[in-house]
């Protein structure tokens, strides 16, 4: 009898806890949407809700201020056109207001070219989107904990109730994210984002072409990189990109020595276009190992693991002269920057491009489609944990559920890549409502024993190309292939920083410098494993646990542990790179 009473008492406590969490979620939804309707202020104790509510309110206030100023300036414009006010007075007024509110202003029938949204506006917009995701990570994790307790106490009614709350909460999150995306499109800035993305990418590509094509190769300063690192394809491509970044930062022409490349004995140029049309000769009057001097004509570069001294411009550094444009345009400018080097490096030879086009046509690859990369073999147990196909498919389902809130989806299509031949058949059997594209023979060729064959190279080229061209990527960032596909994806969209879900790591680049964040809200440790921080503290981030918390070290207090993810933002490592004044900036 006593055991039954204790069980009932525990069930009541869990039920109350579930109701409290459900109430928490409802309040969160009201607070998230209310700023779009009115300016009513609410006292909310939860830090996450305060931040999101404040952020949405600020976003709405910016729009209202812009509309009011547009109305005032339109009246000024009409008076200027009638001769009552000089036109230059209106222009000076507009310029002054833009400088103060940091937002572009247009009025009347002006022909002035749109300058797009401010950097602060774009950063805030993306922060709200991530904030909605973070609050759901937290609520979902807490409810899952309660559900597990209910299961342990043999309380099926409670477990079912919590599952219903989880399902309902997920729908709310999907609607909010969709609304935020639609709001972004309704603001009329999509054209600017596309134009700016092309212009900024074009500038970087022209700079890379300039440094790679000196007028006189015999006099050019060179950086020699040997493509002989003992690792897989993704790792070797990242090695080549590291060399390319070093060449750009030192204003030297990169000479990629790829003779007897493990993936193709004919060398790099058998698969990709040459890095230079004018300079491929590694010889020079004098040569030295890194770092050499500024006058040394030829410098040989070691692998990043052996690099000493380490310069400040290694990833995740971004160039100062382009940094503000990059931060304004992209949710992760560090990845965008690396993607630009991949864009130049991985320009296919016509035969390679033809092979990829034929593979895409043969498998009837088309949107909407989610890319899934399941890395097994040598990674599992050493660099990464095992993840079942079910874990990946949860996020595939989320993508299509979100899309179906906006439009009809005829086929739930997935491109599945893996180095384990058993994964594709398993997925097809377990998920008959999905159409899976992929090739088991590619998985067989990706095995450690056969990965350096011609067929294996074709397979990995196909997998990365297809993954990068999907609409959303589900993978593990512990895999070089996954990160490479994500980097290439950034070159195909104005901003694809949110088009992924990693089951383990946050994005990183092998051999990178410190990845730091800055605390934007204070936090007092609430339990074991958490750390305290003050506004402005620099945090070395080790990872996001995808449960509302990140792990890192407070560099002021030297404490290591968990902190709420939403209370910190990336601290970009902005470095002085060459500005390449020889390459004109397009108007």
Structure in words:
It is a single-pass type II membrane protein. InterPro entries: Fut8, Fut8_N_cat, Fut8_SH3, GT23_dom, SH3-like_dom_sf, SH3_domain. Pfam families: FUT8_N_cat, SH3_9. It comes from Daphnia barbata. The protein has 587 residues and is an alpha/beta fold. 48% of the residues lie in helices and 12% in strands. The chain contains 15 helices and 16 strands. A 5-stranded parallel beta sheet has the order 8-7-6-9-10, sandwiched between helices. Strands 14-13-12-11-15 form a 5-stranded antiparallel beta sheet, with no helix packed on it. Helix 12 links the parallel strand 7 and strand 8. It is globular, with a radius of gyration of 27 Å. The N terminus is likely disordered.
List keywords for this structure.
single chain; 587 residues; alpha/beta; Helix Hairpins; 5 domains; five-stranded parallel sheet; five-stranded antiparallel sheet; 16 strands; 12% strand; disordered N terminus
At a glance:
The chain is α/β, with parallel strands linked by helices and 587 residues long.
Strand order of the largest sheet: 8-7-6-9-10
Helix content: 40-55%
Q: Per CATH, what is the topology of the largest domain?
A: Rossmann fold
- Largest sheet, if any? 5 strands, parallel
User: Termini separation (Å)?
Assistant: 82 Å
Structural class: alpha/beta
Rg computed from alpha carbons, rounded to a whole number of angstroms = 27 Å
Please give the domain count.
Answer: 5
Strand content: 5-15%
CATH hierarchy, class of the largest domain:
Alpha Beta
Number of DSSP strand runs: 16
Query: What overall form do the CA principal axes indicate?
Result: globular
- Mean pLDDT score: 86
* Poorly predicted runs: 2-24, 26-45, 107-112
Level-2 CATH architecture of the largest domain = 3-Layer(aba) Sandwich
Please, how many helices? 15
Motif (SH3-binding): 309-315
Subcellular location: Golgi apparatus, Golgi stack membrane
Domain GT23: 219-503
GO molecular function, one term: glycoprotein 6-alpha-L-fucosyltransferase activity
């Amino acid at each position: 009898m006593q055991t039954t009473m204790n069980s009932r008492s525990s069930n009541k406590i869990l039920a109350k806890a579930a109701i409290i969490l459900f109430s928490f979620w409802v309040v969160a939804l009201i607070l998230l949407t209310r700023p779009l309707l009115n300016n009513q202020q609410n006292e909310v104790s939860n830090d996450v809700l305060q931040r999101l509510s404040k952020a949405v309110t600020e976003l709405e206030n910016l729009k209202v201020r812009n509309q009011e100023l547009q109305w005032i300036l339109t009246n000024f414009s009409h008076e200027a056109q009638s001769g009552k006010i000089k036109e230059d007075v209106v222009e000076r007024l507009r310029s002054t207001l833009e400088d103060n509110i940091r937002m572009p202003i247009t009025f009347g029938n002006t022909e002035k070219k749109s300058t797009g949204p401010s950097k602060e506006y774009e950063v805030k917009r993306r922060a709200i989107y991530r904030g909605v995701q973070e609050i759901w990570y937290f609520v979902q994790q807490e409810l899952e904990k309660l559900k597990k307790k209910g299961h342990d106490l043999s309380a099926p009614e409670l477990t079912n109730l919590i599952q219903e709350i989880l399902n309902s909460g997920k729908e709310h999150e999907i609607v909010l994210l969709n609304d935020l995306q639609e709001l972004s499109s309704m603001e009329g800035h999509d054209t600017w984002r596309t134009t700016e993305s092309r212009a900024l990418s074009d500038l970087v590509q022209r700079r890379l072409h300039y440094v790679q094509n000196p007028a006189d190769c015999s006099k050019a300063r060179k950086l020699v990189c040997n493509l002989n690192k003992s690792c897989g394809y993704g790792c070797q491509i990242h090695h080549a990109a590291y060399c390319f970044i070093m060449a750009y930062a030192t204003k030297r022409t990169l000479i990629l020595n790829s003779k007897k490349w493990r993936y193709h004995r004919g060398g790099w140029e058998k698969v990709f276009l040459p890095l230079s049309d004018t300079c491929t000769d590694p010889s020079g009057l004098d040569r030295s190992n890194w770092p050499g001097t500024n006058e040394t004509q030829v410098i040989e570069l070691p692998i990043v693991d052996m690099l000493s001294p380490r310069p400040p411009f290694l990833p995740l550094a971004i160039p100062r002269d382009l940094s503000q444009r990059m931060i304004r345009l992209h949710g992760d400018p560090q990845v965008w920057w690396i993607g630009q080097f991949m864009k130049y490096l991985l320009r296919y030879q016509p035969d390679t491009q033809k092979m990829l086009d034929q593979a895409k046509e043969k498998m009837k690859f088309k949107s909407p489609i989610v890319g899934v990369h399941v890395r097994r073999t040598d990674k599992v147990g050493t660099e990464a944990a095992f993840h079942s196909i079910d874990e990946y498919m949860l996020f595939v389902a989320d993508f299509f559920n979100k899309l179906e809130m906006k439009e009809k989806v005829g086929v739930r299509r997935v491109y599945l890549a893996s180095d384990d031949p058993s994964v594709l058949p398993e997925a097809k059997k377990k998920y008959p409502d999905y159409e899976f594209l992929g090739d088991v023979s590619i998985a067989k060729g990706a095995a450690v024993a056969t990965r350096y064959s011609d067929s294996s190279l074709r397979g990995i080229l196909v997998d990365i190309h297809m993954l990068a061209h999907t609409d959303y990527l589900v993978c593990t960032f512990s895999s070089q292939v996954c990160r490479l596909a994500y980097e290439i994806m950034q070159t195909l969209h104005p901003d694809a920083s949110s088009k992924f879900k990693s089951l383990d790591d946050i994005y990183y680049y092998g051999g990178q410098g410190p990845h730091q964040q800055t605390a934007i809200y204070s936090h007092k440790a609430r339990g074991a494993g958490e750390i305290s921080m003050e506004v402005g503290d620099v945090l070395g981030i080790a990872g996001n646990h995808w449960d509302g918390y990140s792990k890192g070290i407070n560099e002021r207090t030297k404490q290591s542990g968990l902190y709420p993810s939403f209370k910190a933002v990336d601290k970009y490592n902005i470095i002085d790179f060459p500005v390449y004044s020889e390459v004109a900036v397009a108007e």
